[in-house]
Amino acid sequence: MARQEQETSVEAAVASRYSAAARAVEPELCCAVTYDPALMAVIPDEVIERDYGCGDPSRQVRSGDVVLDLGSGSGKACFIASQVVGSTGRVIGVDANDEMLALARGAQKDVAAAIGYDNVCFLKARIQDLSLDLERLDQWFDGQQISDLAGWQRMEEMIRGWRVEQPLVADKSVDIVVSNCVLNLVHPGDRRKLFGEVARVLKPGGRAVISDIVSDSDVPDHMQQDLALWSGCVSGAYREDRFLEAFAAAGLVEIEVVQRQAEPWTVVEGIEFRSVTVRAFSPVADGPLFDSIEFPTLSPPDESSCCEPGGDCC
Question: Which of 48, 100, 129, 172 has the fewest CB atoms within 10 Å distance of its CB?
Answer without folding.
Answer: 172
